[in-house]
Every structure is written in C-alpha cells, then in structure tokens.
Amino acid sequence: MTAFLWTYKRGIQYYGIPPSKMGHLLGMVALGIIAGICTGMGIHLGREAVFQDPLSILHFWKGGMSSYYSFIGGCCFAFFYIFRTKLSLWRVAESASLPSAALIAIGRWGCFLNGCCGGIPTSHLWGVRFAIDPEALIRHPTQLYYSFGALAILLALQWIEFRLGESERFVKAAFLWPLFLILWGFLRIFVDPLRIDWYLSGIEASHRGSFSMVIVGGIWLSYSCWKLIRKIYD
C-alpha cells in the first residue's frame, strides 16, 4: 500500500499525471497483480487441481506467489490502461521506479521472517538458521541479498533522478525504470542460484524472467539514450 501511495504522489507531484487517471491506473495495476498471482497459483497447483477446485487459485498461503507473475500481471494491466487513455508511458514508468525498488527492499524482509525463498547451505559467517531447519544447518540469507540489493538500486535511482530532473527534464524519456529492470534482473541472475528451490524446481523459468527483464530494460534504455544524444546534437 505504501508503494502505491508513493507512486500516486510521485505521478501527480513530480510527473504531472492527472490525479483521477493516476488513481485509475493504480487500480488497474492492483487487479493485474492479483491476476498474476492467481495465474502463478494455477501453474503451481497444476491443471487437474485447479479443475477440481477452481477457487484453489485464491489459496495464496499455499505457495505460488511468484514475484514474476505478479510483476507481469501488473505491467500488462498498466500498459492496457496507459495506451487506452493515452497517458505518457515514460512519466508513468518513472513514477513507479523508486517505489518498486522500495517495495522489494521492504517486502523481502517478510520472506526472511517467514523463512521462504531460503538459500542453500553455507559456512559463511553471515549465514542464518531458520526455525524449520536443524540446528547445525546454516543457509545463505538470500532474502536479505535481495533486500539490500534493492535498497542499493533505490539509492542509485534516487541519485540519477536528482541529476536528470523529473517532469521538466531535458529529454522526455524514461531512464529510471529501464535501469531498474536491468539492475533487478542482474541481481536475480546472481542471487537466484543461491536459493534452495533453484535446484528443486529447475532454473529455466527464473532465468527466462531475469534475462527478459535485462533485455527489455537494455532496449528501452538504449532508446532513451538515443533520444538524449539526438536532443543534444539537434
């Protein structure tokens, strides 16, 4: 909720998006996130289980709440609303960049306290033991790697936004959101292999998601840089 309110404030105050459209957009994003989570639950439970009990896709406490599915769902619904209402894509994207990094930085502490998304065994001094593990088993705190990594991304984006400016920046293009996609994608690529479920459920889906974020972010950032260079030399 805090991330939504911060995005709402940034969109209105910093990037000049009308309040009514910003509110409707965030409502669509919320619906998209729920749809993404339900899709993840359906994949997690399997086709037969969903056919037997369709409401099982709402049993979020049983797992399947992958951040990728919620992210994709939220983005799809957001793009639908943006193009339908002719909102400025770059303004919306920049509004959501810092709150998204903050959401991950805070939200991963919930994973850490719950003991989910745990890491593989390690002998490092910063290893942790979760309540469900034997006393001698120490794991990588992968949730904290994500959290502190997202915090570093947040600070970097904040500094870049300060340098670039907000709605009145020199070139009207998104830089923060593409950078977020690239940095978060690379963080997942490096940290995911330290998770225990990486070896239990396979690596293909996670790798595809992470590399897709890096590729999309790289293409988007290249386009924004091209617009900046063209603006400078025009």
TrEMBL record:
Coiled-coil stretches noted in the UniProt entry, renumbered to this chain: none
Transmembrane segments: 25-45, 66-83, 144-162, 174-191, 211-229
GO cellular component: a single term: plasma membrane
Presence of the UniProt keyword Transport in the record: no
GO biological process terms on file: lipoprotein biosynthetic process
Presence of keyword Methyltransferase: no
InterPro entries documented for this protein: Lgt
Protein name: Prolipoprotein diacylglyceryl transferase
Taxonomic source organism: Aminobacterium colombiense (strain DSM 12261 / ALA-1)
